[in-house]
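Posting here for the record, re: FVH.
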Amino acid sequence: MTTATPVTVLGLGAMGSALARTFLAKGHPTTVWNRTASRSVPLADAGAVAAPTAAAAAKASPLVVLCLLDGTAVEEVLGALEGAVAGRTLVNLTSGSPSQAREYERWAREHGAAYLDGKIMGDPPYVGTPDIMFPFSGSRDAFTEHEETLRELGTVTYHGEDAGLAAVEFLAQVAVAYELLIGYLHTLRLVQAEGVDVEEFGARVAASVPAYPALLTSMAQAVKRGEYAPDLGPLDVQAALMDDMIGHRESAGVEAVRMREVKKLMDRRIADGHGGQGFSSLFELLAPHGRP
Ligand code: FVH
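Prediction output follows.
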């Protein structure tokens, strides 16, 4: 006899299908629904119950997971769930913004459901392994009740009762990756322009990654305290190096706009009398005017 919580999955794209397959594999009675019904067939063949409507699917389980393309899809599906979610926990794993998450939380409360917003950091093949991250936020009681089931999906973290916090975490982590990777691409362009093998260079950069965790942590500590030691050296010295870096890019015909932006920030800090502080101190210049 199974004791695993029954789960419903609404949305059977690449990710929703991976979620449903994982719940099935871990022994959860699983009900599925998808707008295009043919996408339910492989899951029904694997043992899921394919419901005819989103509302029928939601009524089948105490835990209802949505994994849809975007906010428009979520709003359409929620519209079909009125009257079907009372007493249930809605877990929305669709990518979206903090304000959308807070709006869905209000909708769930008005319809008698608990709400958890979750975001997915990883690809479908990793669902069910520790190598995919699921930050959650929203109802603490619902998280506690369903934590064990949610942990079947991957590495789970809980960020607080404000439903928007999982999206804050997701968007911030994704932003770090994009900011870092665009810098990396610029550098590969530079290295290639100089006739260096980009693959070998990439391997050397990868080998330097273990140096970063300590730096990231100490920079966040400096920002939190507002005390800026000369990390990476004093800005006075770094600014001179930036001129060399910008000149090198320009001479190699490689875009230097982001480096010039960094140099501009350094020059402003130096002009304000902070040339002895480190790179972290640029944080002071990154708020829109008038905001702390
Ligand atoms: N796949 C990935 O690698 C990434 C990893 C990081 C996080 N994302 C997010 O996960 C959400 C779902 O992504 P997905 O990969 O499953 O996306 P698709 O394969 O394109 O499937 C989309 C599903 O959404 C359904 N859908 C779209 N519009 C509507 C609508 N108006 N009403 C109802 N359902 C809708 C679609 O249904 P159908 O086209 O088959 O009828 C699919 O089930 C996403 O937020 C990623 O950012 C995945």
